[in-house]
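Query structure, 72 C-alpha cells:
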C-alpha cells in the first residue's frame, strides 16, 4: 500500500490544504505535550505537590490584658 513516496506527498498536501499552514504547528505542539505527559505518566514521575493550605498552627494574637475595675 505505501510502496511509493508519492502517497506520503499526496497525504501531506491534503493535510496542508485541510488544516492550513498556521494550524499545523499548533497541532504538533499539542501532540508533543500529550506524548510528554504520557511518558511521564508511564514512568510514574509526579511533580511535588504545591502546598496551598495554611500552616497548622497559625500565630495567635492575645487580647490586651484587662485591668480590674476600681470601686468608686
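Result returned for the query:
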Amino acid at each position: 500500500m505505501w510502496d511509493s513516496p508519492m502517497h506520503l506527498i499526496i497525504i501531506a498536501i491534503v493535510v496542508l490544504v485541510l488544516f492550513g499552514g498556521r494550524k499545523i504547528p499548533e497541532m504538533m505542539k499539542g501532540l508533543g505535550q500529550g506524548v510528554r505527559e504520557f511518558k511521564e505518566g508511564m514512568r510514574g514521575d509526579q511533580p511535588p505537590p504545591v502546598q496551598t493550605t495554611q500552616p497548622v498552627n497559625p500565630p495567635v494574637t492575645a487580647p490586651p490584658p484587662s485591668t480590674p475595675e476600681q470601686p468608686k
